[in-house]
Structure formats: C-alpha cells, structure tokens
Predict the structure.
Amino acid sequence: MNARKDRQNQILTLIANEPIATQDELILKLREHGYEVTQATISRDIKELKLIKQVGADGKSVYSAGN
Amino acid sequence: MNARKDRQNQILTLIANEPIATQDELILKLREHGYEVTQATISRDIKELKLIKQVGADGKSVYSAGN
DNA sequence: TGTGAATATAAATTCAAA
DNA sequence: TTTGAATTTATATTCACA
C-alpha cells in the first residue's frame, strides 16, 4: 500500500520544516494534511524512518532525520 | 559539585563503548562503576549532554552523543 | 501487511528536601 | 544546586482484526 509511504514522506517533510517535539504533535500536523493515524502507527513510522529525537540548544526536543 | 560532572563523563564513556538502550540500563552500568543514581537524574544528565536515542539498523535503540 | 485500541515500558517533570 | 520519590507524559509493543 502507498498510503504508508506517502504518510512517511509527509512526516519527513513536516519535521524538516518545523520543530516537532512529540508524536502527538505529529499526529495533529498529519491530520491537517489529511492523514488520520494513531500514535501506534506514528511510533512505527518513526522507527522505520530511523528518526532521532534530539534535545536542542533551547532544551526543547525535536524529531529529525538522523542523517 | 563534581560528582555530577564525573558521572556525566562516565556516561559518555559508557555509551561510547557499548550499546545502551534505556536509562535503566545506564543506571545499572553506572552502579557497576560506583555511581548510585535514579532515573530522574539520568534523564537530566541525558538532556544536559544532549544525547540522542537512535534506532540502529537492527531495530534496537541506542543512546549516543549526537555529534 | 498495516493498523488501532489497549497496555506496557521508558522517559520527563514536579515537588520536597538536603 | 542537585537529587530522589512520586507522578505525568511520551513512546513502544501486544493482540485482534481488516
């Protein structure tokens, strides 16, 4: 299925363009773009995409593509 | 106080030398090296050290120094 | 296969205290 | 300031099912 791949690409785009700190935040953003998913699915996407969660200079954590 | 800085250096050494997946694991390793701390403290250390948790190729997550 | 609901596990934070 | 105990919050996993 391509819904999954599309969604994962959207995730990459989202985190590249704005700081996203939690999976719940990501769920909301995805919803704005027409993707309806739950936290369990996001968690799996993040794992597959090998995203990392890093604490920024300001102390806020942000998801990003590790490399 | 230097206990904190010493402990944080030990943390950096530990994660550099073996894969550590969780804060509880880190607590155990630190204990082996004479440091007695709780998860709350480790969480703060990790934040200060700006460590990242990344999912490896094998699917296991590991803490590492982001850069 | 991919997903959601429920649950388990991990991690961050609050609040008191040394 | 730094910490631990308790708690909240976030994330990963299990289990059933389309």
